[in-house]
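Regression report. Comparing outputs from two consecutive submissions.

Submission 1:
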Amino acid sequence: MIRRAWVNGTLFEQGEIAPISVMDRGLAYGDGLFETIRIESGRPVLLPLHLARLKASATVLGITCDTVTLEDAFIDFIAECGDAAAKIILTRGDSDRGYLPDPEAPSSLIFLLYPAMNWPAELACEGVVAAVCQQPLGISPMLAGHKHLNRLEQVLLRQELAGFAGAHEALVSDVDGHVVEGVFSNVFWIQHGIVYTPCLNRAGVRGVMRQFLLQEMSRLGLQLCEGNYTVTDVLAADEVFFCNSLYGIWPARQMAGVECQPGPITRRLQQCWSEMLGT
């Protein structure tokens, strides 16, 4: 349930109806971007990385985004919220019918505040069961990496994941058979001390948690390889973990029926995450 909403400068408390224009291009075409942010004791975790990604993607898509004003308004919006999850939605704004946007139309900005996501602690400690989705992601270099509002593929994949009894996540590949990500996470694996992760220049989202971990891996001197890999490559790994900015890091304890264990590199990166959170 939404605790609070903010639409283009107007605040709506829980239970109030927050109106959205029926001409908004985010509604009509998914023409926009979003960020989902963990709020820990009132602090927006990894906010600079979220805002940097939002700004970079908005620049590529040609959507007006003033992150300085946005940040000030967002900090006011989450004031005294405690633990929560928040979403920032930026759309290109209103326009008449047709794909061509109105270059003079202002963008639209929405904030949403949700209760904290209370994932069971054992998922991070003991690990998760992961499946392999059969539905593939399409290849779209123009949109690859960006967290845009076109999430229909993820909706279908999440439905598929729900059909795997006991599975918490699943590997997703593109139409060429290259692993891209999880259904709602990025994925890493370790083989002989080397960290591997998919290259996301044709599909997938460059997650903020992924970016944080890449920085930590560099700081720790870990060897990283980004490239095109298959499910077979992942299943042969010594360690596998999924990550996103809400739950952090989930090691895999089983992948498509293959048993595996959280390993030392995964545990070290989980420690980095805990240190960043101050827990």
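Submission 2:
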Amino acid sequence: MKTIRLYQNTPFAEGMKVDLNNDNSHHLNKVLRFPVGKNIIVFNGDGFDYEAVVESAKRTTCINIISKNSNNTESKLDLTLAQGIAKGEKMDFLIQKAVELGVSRIIPMNLERCVVRLKSEKIQKKIDHWQKIANHACEQSGRSVIVNVSQPASLDDLLNEPGHNGFVLHHRATLDLNQVKESLRATILIGPEGGLSEKEVTTAENAGYKSLLLGKRILRTETASLAAIANMQLLWGD
């Protein structure tokens, strides 16, 4: 049986008995039919893995923390993905894969050509949904640091952040990653399905973002995002 890893926003310490929350209890007992007496890994986002033994599995699952172990899966590259909000499951896919590839933060971007326009009363529900996807991706990929999915931001919000070391991806750029000095921090700005407008590219460049080209072919937003992350991790990260 593969190692089961569960995220729970709870303090953990060796010797502590902890009740799993309803979602984790249901997943362990009803979905996996996990046996009492076997070990699992839990984490709370502090960068450590906690090995625990399942002591009981009734309505609430109780675990006993037996060890605390360092987790070295984080990249040395602090990478933020500023992603134009994509339609439906495409955004879910982007978030899941970006977390697997090691991003540190995800900012959903409200840009000119975004087809999706979230109503104010539905924004928090959507952010909670995306955060849950990110948390599950951390579980699956072995990470013990939670990747924050921010509230949707405007281009001005993003460009006003200090120390971004930003890159704006578009197919008319001439600079490629091999020409860029290695850095331990970067932000990637990528448009939605319709791409970034000329005005948005110019505004980003005027704020210090470097225009970046990934190759000769025009990539879909989900391809561009993941290719950029993978290439930056290869050159600057892990």
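Expected: both submissions complete independently.
Actual: both completed, but the second showed a warning that disappeared on reload.
Relevant detail on submission 2: The longest helix spans residues 123-141.
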